[in-house]
Write a structure and sequence with these properties.
The protein is an alpha+beta fold. It contains 13 helices and eight strands. The chain has a six-stranded antiparallel β-sheet with strand order 1-2-6-5-4-3. It has a two-stranded antiparallel sheet with strand order 7-8. The longest helix has 17 residues. The protein starts with 9 loop residues before the first strand and ends with a helix. The N terminus is likely disordered.
Length: 300
């Protein structure tokens, strides 16, 4: 993926109500409300019903992201955390304007009739989070045949029961459970969280990850198809769940998850077929723009 240092941006340490933070000014192609409400992650919540101020836990840390126009404030962070965790997590090391231009060009080669360009404008602030690999995989196993409120509820219960406590401002939050913690919970313990038929899939995934049978870190070094084959060795992981894990945590931006929503979108706008391979190395980012466009603009 193309890289951009954003030298035009001003980055500084600040304090917000006595809490350390980092302020980044001059952002473009970045919208907190879109990033955390496009179905790619499940552990962030708008604060006081403000979609531009979200809070949650990632990489075992409580954090808040608050945006005002082209300025982002990361609360409960410092410059070191920003450089080592949040810049990469939020894809602030990447030039999304170049990506959109390349995708628009590739869609136009397939006689797109302007649909994708509208989608890229509508969801132009979306960036793909680079999530923690195990959490992302487990979350999308839970997502199977499930709706977002229920997914969030199950994950929250799992973290509270088997994650590690994180104290912040008098409240307790929880990290995502390690694979061994979910093995120790057993299938019955996972089932009691409301996971249903997915309990045995989560347990199998945890077992394969903890034993090293599947090394999520090593998958980034494989081509996308081979990495998908490896993930599909886990019970209950098919092409869609594998594609989500690849796209949202393993830097495989050509992965293109197809669920009921996306199939409907493809049938509606591309009845003659869309050659996903010809979309190039950012096809998965295109999928996010199309999904957001259909869900939030056309679907209203």
């Amino acid at each position: 993926m193309s890289s951009h240092t954003y030298e035009k941006n001003q980055i500084s340490e600040i304090t917000v109500s006595g809490v350390p933070g980092v302020q980044i000014c001059g952002l473009s192609d970045f919208d907190v409300s879109q990033i955390f409400d496009c179905g790619q992650c499940f552990r962030f919540t708008p604060k006081s019903d403000d979609p531009y101020h979200v809070y949650g836990v990632a990489f075992g840390r409580y954090v808040e992201f608050k945006q005002n126009s082209d300025t982002l404030i990361i609360i409960n962070s410092d410059i070191n955390d920003y450089e080592n965790i949040w810049k990469r997590y939020l894809a602030l090391d990447t030039d999304y304007s170049d990506i959109k231009a390349e995708l628009i060009h590739n869609f136009n080669l397939q006689s797109d009739s302007g649909v994708f360009e509208k989608a890229a404008e509508c969801g132009g602030g979306i960036r793909l989070l680079r999530q923690e690999k195990w959490e992302c995989l487990c979350s999308f196993i839970i997502s199977q045949n499930n709706n977002i409120p229920r997914i969030r509820k199950i994950i929250s219960a799992m973290c509270e029961k088997y994650g590690k406590p994180i104290e912040f401002s008098g409240r307790t939050y929880y990290s995502f459970p390690a694979s061994q913690a979910l093995i120790d919970a057993g299938i019955e313990g996972l089932f009691r969280l409301g996971t249903g038929f997915r309990a045995k899939y989560i347990y199998d995934a945890a077992t394969k990850i903890a034993s090293g049978e599947i090394d999520l870190g090593a998958l980034s070094g494989l081509d996308t198809k081979q990495a998908e084959i490896e993930l599909c060795k886990i019970k209950g992981v098919g092409p869609k769940v594998a594609a989500c894990a690849l796209l949202f945590s393993l830097d495989k931006y050509d992965a293109f998850p197809i669920d009921v929503w996306v199939k409907r979108i493809l049938d509606k706008y591309y009845p003659g077929g869309l050659d996903i391979i010809k979309l190039g190395k950012y096809a998965g980012i295109a999928q996010q723009y199309l999904f957001y466009y259909e869900r939030y603009m056309v679907g209203k």
